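Figure 6 in text form: structure in, sequence out.
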C-alpha cells in the first residue's frame, strides 16, 4: 500500500472522528443551562475533546453571539472555567477569540452582542481564566469611545475583583467616571445608571455580581491567560473547521489518561455522598515529591537562567504551587559552593512575567527570614544574602519587603544578623552607598533604621551597621540619638531641681515647727546638714542647773582603806616607812 493511500485513509478516519465530535459537542453547548452544568461537563468527555477543542471554542463563541442567550452566559462561563481546569488550551483560545470578536462587533456597533461578550469575559475574569489586562484594554477602549453603558456593565460584574488586583487602575477609572458625571450632559437614564453604579461601589460591590459567580473555587484549577490586541489581529474565521492532526495518536493517549482521571474524581465525589464511604489519603506525598523532582530536573538540565525560565513558564504552574517552585529554586542555589547568577537571572524572568510570581517571592523571603533562618549555615547565609540583595538592588523586589526585619537584640538571632550583613554588602556592591542611602530614605525601614522610639534600639542599630563597615548609613540615626540624649538629660536635671525644691520646702516646714514648739525636737534628728553645722557652733542648749547636776565621766575618789586595783602603784605619804628588805640608797656627799 502506497504512502499516499495511507495518508488518505488517515485523513478520512480523522474527518469521520471530527464529524462525530462536532455532532456530539454542538447540542450539549446549545442546550446548556444552570441546571445541567455538571451533567454537560461530564457528557463532553465522552468524546476526545483534546482533538475537538476548537469545536468547543467555536460553539462557545456562537453561543455568546446569540442575542437570546444573555441570561445563560454565567452557565457558559462556568463550563469554560471547568474545561480550562483540565485543558488550558481551551481557555487560552477563547480569551483570544472573544477579545477579537468584541472588537469586531464593537466596530459594527452591535452593542447587544458586545454586552454578551463583555459579560462572558468579566465572569471569566472572576474565575481567573483571563488576566486583568484583558479587562483593562476593554475599559480603556470604551472610555475613549465614550461607551458608558458597556463600562457600567463591566464594572458592576468585576469591579470588586479589579480593585483587588489593580487598585491604582481601578481608582483611575472611577475618577474618569466621576469627571464625566460632573462635567458632561448625560441622558436621565444614563445618569441614573452611573449614580446606581456609585452606590454599588459604596456598598463594596455587594449587589453587583450576585448569581454570576456560581462555582466553588476549590472545584477547579486556575490557569490564567492574557492577550493584548493589535491592529493586525483578526478573528479566526476557520475556527472549528476540520484540520488534519499530526499528533493524533498522542492526543488520543493523553485524552484516555485525562478521562480516566475525571472518572476517578467523579467516582470519589459520588462515594462521598453515600453512608458507607471509603476515603483514601496519600500519606506518602508522592505527588509533591514528583512535582519537586520535575522542577529540579528542569533547573539542572538548563544551560542558562533564561532557558530554565522558559521551561518553567511553559509548564503553566498554578498559583498555589508557585511558592513551592520558588522554594525549590532557592534550595537549589544553596547547594552551590558559591553564589551563581543563574538563579538570580531565572528569578528576574519569572518575576517580570506575572505579578503572582512577585507575590510568591515576597512570601518566600518572609518565610526564609522569620522561620528558616536558624537552619542555614554561614556559607548558605552568604549565598542567600547575595541572592535576595541582587533582586532588591535591581528593583525586581521592592525595598519594602525588608520591613519585616526588626534589628534588636531580642527580636533577631545571630544567623539573622549575619544574613542582614551579607544582604547589605550585596546592595552596596550593586548600588553604591549614595544610591542605597537614597532608596533607604524613600522607604521607611523603621525596624532597621529607627528614628523614633527607644534609644536602645537606635543605639543597637548604629553599632551593628558600624561594625559591618556601613556606618555612613547611620548618620540620621546618630543625629536623632544625640537629640534624644539631650532631651533625656534635660528631663533628669529638671527632675533633680524638683527634688531640691521639695527638700527645701521640708526644711522650711521643719524650721517653722521648731519655732512654734520650742527646742523639743533637735534639728539633728531631721538630717539637715546645713542647720546642723550652724547649731554646732552655738552654745549647748543645757542650762547652768543641768550642768551642775551633770555626772562627771571620771570615777569617784574612794576612801583610804579602799583598795586600789589599778596597775599603777598608789601615792605614798611623806612619813611612810620603807619596810622592804633592800636598804634605801644613801646619798653621797659631795666633797
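Output sequence:
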Amino acid at each position: 500500500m502506497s504512502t499516499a493511500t495511507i495518508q488518505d485513509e488517515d485523513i478520512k478516519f480523522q474527518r469521520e472522528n471530527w464529524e462525530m465530535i462536532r455532532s456530539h459537542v454542538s447540542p450539549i453547548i446549545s442546550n446548556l443551562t444552570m441546571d445541567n452544568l455538571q451533567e454537560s461537563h461530564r457528557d463532553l468527555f465522552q468524546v476526545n475533546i483534546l482533538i475537538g477543542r476548537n469545536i468547543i471554542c467555536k460553539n462557545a463563541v456562537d453561543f455568546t453571539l446569540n442575542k437570546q442567550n444573555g441570561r445563560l452566559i454565567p452557565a457558559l462561563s462556568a463550563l469554560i472555567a471547568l474545561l480550562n481546569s483540565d485543558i488550558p488550551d481551551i481557555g487560552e483560545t477563547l480569551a483570544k477569540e472573544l477579545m477579537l470578536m468584541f472588537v469586531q462587533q464593537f466596530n459594527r456597533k452591535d452593542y447587544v452582542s458586545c454586552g454578551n461578550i463583555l459579560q462572558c469575559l468579566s465572569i471569566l475574569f472572576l474565575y481567573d481564566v483571563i488576566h486583568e489586562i484583558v479587562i483593562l484594554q476593554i475599559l480603556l477602549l470604551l472610555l475613549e469611545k465614550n461607551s458608558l453603558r458597556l463600562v457600567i456593565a463591566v464594572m458592576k460584574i468585576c469591579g470588586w475583583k479589579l480593585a483587588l488586583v489593580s487598585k491604582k487602575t481601578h481608582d483611575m477609572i472611577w475618577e474618569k467616571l466621576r469627571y464625566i458625571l460632573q462635567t458632561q450632559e448625560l441622558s436621565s437614564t444614563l445618569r441614573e445608571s452611573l449614580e446606581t453604579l456609585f452606590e454599588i461601589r459604596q456598598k463594596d460591590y455587594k449587589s453587583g455580581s450576585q448569581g454570576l459567580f456560581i462555582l466553588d473555587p476549590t472545584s477547579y484549577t486556575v490557569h490564567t491567560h492574557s492577550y493584548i490586541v493589535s491592529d493586525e489581529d483578526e478573528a479566526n474565521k476557520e475556527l472549528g473547521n476540520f484540520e488534519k492532526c499530526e499528533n493524533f495518536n498522542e492526543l488520543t493517549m493523553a485524552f484516555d489518561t485525562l478521562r480516566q482521571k475525571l472518572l476517578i474524581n467523579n467516582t470519589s465525589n459520588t462515594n462521598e455522598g453515600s453512608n458507607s464511604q471509603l476515603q483514601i489519603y496519600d500519606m506518602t506525598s508522592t505527588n509533591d515529591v514528583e512535582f519537586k523532582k520535575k522542577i529540579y530536573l528542569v533547573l539542572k538540565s538548563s544551560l542558562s537562567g533564561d532557558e530554565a525560565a522558559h521551561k518553567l513558564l511553559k509548564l503553566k504552574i498554578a498559583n498555589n504551587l508557585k511558592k513551592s517552585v520558588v522554594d525549590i529554586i532557592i534550595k537549589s542555589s544553596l547547594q552551590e559552593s558559591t553564589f551563581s547568577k543563574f538563579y538570580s537571572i531565572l528569578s528576574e524572568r519569572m518575576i517580570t512575567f506575572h505579578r503572582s510570581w512577585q507575590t510568591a517571592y515576597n512570601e518566600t523571603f518572609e518565610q526564609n527570614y522569620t522561620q528558616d533562618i536558624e537552619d542555614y549555615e554561614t556559607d548558605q547565609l552568604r549565598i542567600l544574602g547575595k541572592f535576595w540583595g541582587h533582586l532588591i538592588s535591581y528593583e525586581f523586589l521592592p525595598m519594602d519587603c525588608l520591613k519585616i526585619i526588626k534589628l534588636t537584640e531580642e527580636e533577631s538571632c545571630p544567623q539573622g544578623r549575619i544574613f542582614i550583613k551579607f544582604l547589605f554588602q550585596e546592595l552596596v556592591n550593586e548600588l553604591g552607598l549614595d544610591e542605597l542611602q537614597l532608596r533607604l530614605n524613600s522607604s521607611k525601614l523603621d525596624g532597621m533604621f529607627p528614628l523614633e522610639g527607644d534609644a536602645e534600639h537606635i543605639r543597637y542599630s548604629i553599632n551593628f551597621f558600624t561594625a559591618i563597615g556601613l556606618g555612613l548609613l547611620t548618620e540620621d540615626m546618630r543625629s536623632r540619638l544625640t537629640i534624644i540624649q539631650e532631651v533625656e538629660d534635660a528631663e533628669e536635671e529638671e527632675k533633680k531641681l524638683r527634688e531640691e525644691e521639695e527638700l527645701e520646702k521640708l526644711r522650711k516646714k521643719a524650721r517653722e515647727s521648731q519655732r512654734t514648739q520650742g527646742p523639743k525636737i533637735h534639728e539633728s534628728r531631721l538630717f539637715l546638714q546645713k542647720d546642723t553645722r550652724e547649731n554646732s557652733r552655738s552654745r549647748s542648749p543645757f542650762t547652768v542647773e543641768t550642768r551642775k547636776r551633770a555626772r562627771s565621766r571620771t570615777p569617784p575618789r574612794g576612801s583610804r582603806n579602799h583598795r586600789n586595783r589599778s596597775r599603777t602603784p598608789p601615792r605614798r605619804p611623806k612619813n611612810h616607812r620603807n619596810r622592804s628588805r633592800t636598804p634605801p640608797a644613801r646619798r653621797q656627799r659631795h666633797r
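Caption detail: The CA atoms of residues 102 and 108 lie 10 Å apart.
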